[in-house]
Amino acid sequence: MLFRSNITAVGLRLNAGTEVGATGNHVETTVGTVSARAANGGIYLRETDALIVGDVSVTISKVDSAAAVSTVTDATQSDVMTTGGNGNVVIRSTGGNITLNDGTAGGTTGLAVSANGSGNVLIEAIRNDTDITANTDVVSASGHITVQAGQSVIFAANADIRTGTTGTIDVEAGTGSITMDATSLYTTGTGDIRMLAAQTITVGDVSTGGNASLTATAGSILDADSAVGADDTNLNITAVGLRLNAGTAVGATGNHVETTVGTVSARAANGGIYLRETD
């Protein structure tokens, strides 16, 4: 089937009173940077190559009946957000990396993607050599959130995934690793959290009133804190139940994985298991 973009541009600014795209018919794009708003529905985008979520403004020269022109500007808009109707956010790239940046427009500081109410979020880089890099937050009030990269997922300093109540979090790295900065947080109310990487998982802070599962198929599960030769006291995982499975090791001799959990099960196929529990 021939794939044709609806919109090709350097920057794309979308703002709808209802929704952008539909569940079965996404808006197809070939753009560099995107910002989108939907006031009473979802946002559904399918990008052909690399995509940045960030700032976009548009300025045109409007022609009147006398052929004179006046400048009209659609002001800078940041991020991809649904603001009503429990709108979902779906951003998929078939052929490039996805980068989530904190925009500069007022009122949206500290996030790149936000779903209203129980709206769900999918951010997906499909090709197996593509990454997702989050430099700021991905949030929903209570919806489920999936971040899935063909290769690796990277969450930079203070970049979080946040939802609430029974919303779940799923982070997957198809051929590479999941890397959280030590200050990065994945958190929900009582929903489960799942992290699955083909290689290594470097965990910052994971917190839920439900269960958590971390699987590093061919690598290790490691503490993102940079302590060398001595353990730190910063928690990595808070959960009711914790399931760990690593192709190599869980933690390291000088840097244990710090937990506050009720029940734990762990496997390491080619190395040790090092856990430090608070209670």
Explain what you see.
By secondary structure, the chain is mainly β. It is 0% helix and 51% strand. The protein has a 15-stranded parallel beta barrel with strand order 2-3-8-11-14-17-20-23-25-22-19-16-13-10-7. Strand 5 and strand 6 form a beta hairpin. The termini are far apart.
Give the mean pLDDT: 96
- Measured by DSSP, the beta-strand proportion falls in over 45%
Secondary structure category: mainly beta
Tell me the major beta sheet. Answer: 15 strands, parallel, barrel
Number of helices: 0
The helix content, as a percent range, equals: under 10%
Strands of the largest sheet, in order across it? 2-3-8-11-14-17-20-23-25-22-19-16-13-10-7
Order of helices and strands: EEEEEEEEEEEEEEEEEEEEEEEEEEE
**Oligomeric assembly:** single chain
Low-confidence stretches: none
- CA radius of gyration is 21 Å
By DSSP, the count of extended strands is 27
Shape type:
elongated
Cα separation of the termini: 56 Å
Labels describing this entry:
0% helix, mainly beta, 279 residues
